[in-house]
Design brief:
The structure holds two protein chains of two kinds. By secondary structure, chain A is mainly beta. Chain A contains no helices and eleven strands. Chain B has no helices and eleven strands.
Chain lengths: 112, 110
């Protein structure tokens, strides 16, 4: 499927567990991003990547780890999930010639 | 410290009337501004944008105005339609990254 996909769409996990959220894009976009959406905060940038093997922290990176071994994939890992990480997570991508970012459908994560 | 602010969490408007959404920013380095629309259980979708060197951009029913001296932009939707009921996010660009406002929920009444 063309575009940007996220999996799983819904996830419930327990405090302390490791969780990985997947993101895949088919446009060969250079840039990829992870955001979390929380009421009253809008979308906050967690991590971003300018290319394979190049990643950098965003506004709220604590408790998260990313990697980008291939251009099309950008997984986000919560090493030890906490209740404060309950949120909706969006992955996005963009090319180098445009400022628009294109978003995936989101993953709703609940940490109990 | 939120650099992009949408001070109205919600807006209710009658079908056919104008919807005006406002956004303020603090960072002078922002060079491009975008509006996104989001329906429940979906990702945000790009709606319209404006460069910092312009003061107006129009696309069909949607017009974005930028007042750089006031660090303020607004989105006008005319006429408002039921399908416009959604959350609207203002975003500002700098160095390939976007900073988002908290969003405004628009409800269009029949």
């Amino acid at each position: 499927d063309a575009g940007i996909t996220q999996s799983p769409r819904y996830k419930i996990t327990e405090t302390g567990r490791q969780v990985t959220l997947m993101c895949h894009q088919t446009w060969s976009h250079s840039y990829m991003f992870w955001y979390r959406q929380d009421l009253g905060h809008g979308l906050r940038l967690i991590y971003y990547s300018a290319a394979a093997d190049i990643t950098d922290k965003g506004e709220v990176p604590d408790g998260y780890v990313v990697s980008r071994s291939k251009t099309e994939n950008f997984p986000l890992t919560l090493e030890s999930a906490t209740r404060s990480q309950t949120s909706v997570y969006f992955c996005a991508s963009s090319g180098t010639e445009t400022y628009e970012q294109y978003f995936g459908p989101g993953t709703r994560l609940t940490v109990t | 410290d939120q650099q992009v602010k949408q001070n109205s969490p919600s807006l209710s408007v009658q079908e056919g009337r104008i919807s005006i959404l406002n956004c303020d920013y603090t960072n002078s380095m922002f060079d491009y501004f975008l509006w996104y629309k989001k329906y429940p259980a979906e990702g945000p979708t790009f709606l319209i944008s404006i460069s910092s060197i312009k003061d107006k951009n129009e696309d069909g029913r949607f017009t974005v105005f930028l007042n750089k001296s006031a660090k303020h932009l607004s989105l006008h939707i005319v006429p408002s339609q039921p399908g416009d009921s959604a959350v609207y996010f203002c975003a500002a660009h700098n160095d390939y990254k976007l900073s988002f406002g908290a969003g405004t929920t628009v409800t269009v009444r029949a």
